[in-house]
Amino acid sequence: MRKFVAFFDLHYGYERDSSRHRRPLHDAKAMQVALQFLATFRPHDIILGGDILDCGVISHHNQRRPGRTEGFRLLADAKELRAVFLNEIEKQKQAKKYYIIGNHEDWLGDLIDLEPGLEGIITIQSLLSLGPDWQIIPQGKHLNLGKLTFLHGDQLRGGEHVAKAAVIAYERSVRFGHFHTFQAYTKTSALDIRQGRTGIVVPCLCTKGPKYGEGAPNRWVQGFNYGYIKPDGSYSDYVALIVNGRSVVEGKEYQG
């Protein structure tokens, strides 16, 4: 069996809080829990499911609002992400590595639309020094491992029932992030009970109360997806939840 791990929505980067203080969007403890599990599990496939680099410093949401990004630099965020996260992932020499472009990384494309002269220079590969060991999945596209489909999730609509919307839209078993919550839906055809399909929204690895939420309640939780792909393509997979920088996975506790 092939083992896989999928991480979504790290949002590595920074913002200004309501007092104008710099604070991280990523959660260092959740990130460390994920990396500790990775080192123990040693998967054959590692999937970064999008919005790994936040890219907020170039977001259209922050245009004409320089106070929001004063002192922040995209390259500095990328170098930090490489040093504290990607270097650890690349220690898993045995693993195939995939990077699905999320809507936040796609802001790099928006920047090129504004400044076409940057084409070929500003890419996620160059910013994060992603070598030939990485397969890049374009924004809006998907990755199939056996009978599982992985995507970022920003193309989906469905409100509180987005896991259901994913199964209906793709007619496959789907794993995706983007919504920063944990949700599951199952559907089995009346014509073929062997073809049960599941949709799972995988939790995030970022902080749970960004400033743009303005303190409003949300459904955000932290965690990641891991599992096994059998030779016939069937699978068994699980969601590991991270609570206050701790997670217990297969009987072992991980602490950030």
Please describe what this structure looks like:
The chain is α/β, with parallel strands linked by helices. It has a single domain (2-255), classed as Purple Acid Phosphatase, chain A, domain 2. The chain has five helices and 15 strands. The longest helix is centred in the N-terminal third of the chain and has 16 residues, at 74-89.
Question: Can you give keywords for this protein?
Answer:
single chain; 256 residues; alpha/beta; Purple Acid Phosphatase, chain A, domain 2; 6-stranded mixed sheet; 27% strand; globular
Short description:
The chain is globular, with a radius of gyration of 18 Å. The protein starts with a strand and ends with a strand.
In CATH, the topology is named Purple Acid Phosphatase, chain A, domain 2
Number of helices: 5
The CATH level-2 architecture is identified as 4-Layer Sandwich
- Main sheet attributes: strand count, strand direction, barrel closure: 6 strands, mixed
Question: H/E order of the elements?
Answer: EEEHEHEHHEEEHEEEEEEE
CATH hierarchy class name:
Alpha Beta
- Uncertain segments are none
What radius of gyration results from the CA coordinates?
A: 18 Å
Query: How are the strands of the largest sheet arranged?
Result: 6-5-4-1-12-13
Tell me the number of strands.
Answer: 15
How does the helix and strand content classify structurally? alpha/beta
Shape category: globular
Mean pLDDT across residues:
92
